[in-house]
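Why should sequence recovery work at all? Because a backbone constrains its sequence more than one might expect. Tight turns favour small or flexible residues, buried strands favour hydrophobic ones, and helices have their own preferences. The token representation captures these environments compactly. In the example below, the structure is given first.
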């Protein structure tokens, strides 16, 4: 009979991670999902049929192309950058992790404005890199002076900007970002996950600033959140360092094939984006007509709004009707704030009617 050994496993846990909370997505029953900034439209039928035929020929017993060369070539042509500047990732989260791993030395610090995408902080803490943040202004813009004050003198700084920012939806002051970009002690990462909805990008100045990194994803506008495909555009030297820490075969072969086919059939994606932008304007205007709600201007596929009513009660009221949005209510800039993802016309109408 084996003797059960008593062991305190907590002694193995890193002390700096003891208070870290994992990124959790609660399983909340719903009929309309408007909480995760996803594209409300599935892949067009003709593309699915094309992928189904490709699936029958696909060799799943072989490892994928380790650098996703064919996909990178197509992206380089569309973005007009060199293929050596592009690194693919299993979602842009993976690339954030790689950047922090590659450049997060003992003297490094990760800096970002708040509120923003939570993974910048989580991944920095997991890597054991010091984290500092600076609050946004009342109109959700960056304060360059506050951000600079958080940089580590004489160290390496990784400054992350979500552009447009999640969860506020706005693009930060461009010149302010450039001011920080012009420092020689800072790598600036501009996360353009929602670029297709804003049309605003830093790619035109990429070659002028070797310390600029741009992140993009197929999860939002391209509707491939279930496949986890992201990419990074940067100076070849930065890309080379990221390749050193990148896991082998990090992007599966089927995801590579689907992303490539979508790039080749970009017209359908553009049509979906056009519909989402029109529906976004409808949501914003209808929210602005309600005397107890203040919607905030947005460049993304979601709308942040503040309610004079109790945010928790409004969130639950919508949930009783099966409509799930994101409850961001917390003390500070997001007090009584909720965020709704732009859905289909029918979903948006259901959400708006639920507010009446």
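From this structural description, the recovered sequence reads:
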């Amino acid at each position: 009979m084996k003797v059960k050994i008593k062991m305190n496993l907590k002694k193995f846990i890193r002390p700096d991670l003891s208070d870290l909370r994992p990124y959790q997505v609660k399983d909340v029953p719903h009929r309309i999902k408007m909480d995760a900034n996803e594209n409300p439209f599935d892949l067009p039928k003709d593309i699915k049929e094309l992928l189904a035929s490709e699936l029958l020929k696909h060799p799943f017993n072989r490892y994928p192309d380790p650098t996703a060369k064919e996909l990178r070539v197509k992206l380089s042509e569309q973005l007009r950058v060199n293929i050596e500047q592009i690194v693919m990732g299993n979602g842009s989260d993976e690339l954030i992790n790689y950047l922090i791993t590659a450049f997060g030395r003992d003297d490094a610090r990760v800096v970002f404005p708040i509120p923003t995408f939570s993974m910048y902080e989580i991944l920095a803490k997991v890597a054991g890199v010091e984290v500092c943040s600076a609050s946004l202004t009342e109109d959700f813009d960056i304060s360059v002076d506050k951000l600079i004050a958080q940089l580590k003198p004489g160290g390496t700084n990784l400054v992350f900007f979500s552009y447009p920012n999640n969860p506020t939806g706005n693009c930060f002051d461009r010149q302010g970002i450039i001011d920080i970009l012009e420092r020689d002690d800072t790598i600036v990462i501009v996360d353009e996950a929602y670029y297709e909805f804003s049309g605003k990008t830093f790619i035109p100045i990429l070659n002028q600033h070797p310390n600029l990194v741009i992140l993009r994803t197929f999860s939002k506008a391209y509707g491939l959140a279930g496949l986890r495909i992201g990419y990074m555009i940067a100076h070849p030297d930065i890309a080379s360092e990221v390749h050193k820490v990148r896991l082998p075969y990090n992007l599966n072969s089927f995801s590579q094939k689907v992303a490539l086919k979508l790039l080749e059939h970009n017209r359908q994606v553009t049509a979906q984006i056009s519909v989402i932008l029109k529906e976004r304007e409808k949501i914003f205007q209808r929210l602005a007509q309600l005397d107890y709600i203040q919607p905030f201007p947005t460049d993304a596929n979601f709308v942040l709004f503040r309610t004079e009513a109790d945010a928790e009660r409004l969130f639950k009221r919508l949930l009783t009707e099966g409509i799930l949005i994101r409850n961001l209510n917390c003390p500070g800039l997001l007090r009584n704030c909720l965020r709704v993802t732009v859905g289909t016309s029918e979903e948006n109408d259901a959400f708006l009617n639920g507010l009446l």
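A few observations help interpret the result. The two ends are 67 Å apart (CA to CA).
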